[in-house]
Amino acid sequence: MLKTVTYINDMLTRLLEVLITLLMTGMVVFIVMQVYFRYVLAQPLSWSEELAGYLFSGVFFFGAVLLYRESRHINMSLFVDSIKNPFVRQIIVIVAHLLSFLFLAIVVWYSYPMALQIIDFEVVSPSMEWLKMGHVFMIVPVASFLSLFMLLEVILKSIAQLKEIRQ
């Protein structure tokens, strides 16, 4: 199972790296456009700053997905590293990952219906009437779901390490 999850996560990682690159590129382009239109042409764009903010949200949340895979989120490493027994240390790491998994599952459970409800309300962006806010809000459940999948790989690897320590 670990090999399958790792293979899928490898593909997701490549896809997310491309997506984040595109989002960041778009963000830079729209911000440069805003500066040019505001200060050179004296005709500021009403939508570019807002769109850049939404793109930043995508960079933030999808970047967090990649951090789960690398186990680079903020944690209590000082506490964990102070535990001398490697078996107990690994148990605590697994419990922490499981609690993160539970938290992300709750986020998906509650944020997905909320985003769908916002889509149904047909709330649109104040400066871009073509952009439904529900689609922007959908970033949270999608990124949280992808984080669950990345965290599953981390948990499976941690359990495999626990088995090695036990032997």
TrEMBL record:
Which positions, given as ranges, span the membrane?
12-39, 51-69, 90-112, 132-156
GO MF entry, a single one: transmembrane transporter activity
Which subcellular locations apply to this protein? Cell inner membrane
Asked if the keyword Lipid metabolism belongs to this entry, the reply reads no
Source domain of life: Bacteria
**One of this protein's Pfam families, by short name?**
DctQ
- Which GO CC terms are listed, alphabetically? plasma membrane
The record's family statement is: Belongs to the TRAP transporter small permease family.
Q: What is this protein called?
A: TRAP-type C4-dicarboxylate transport system permease small subunit
- Native species of this protein? Aminivibrio pyruvatiphilus
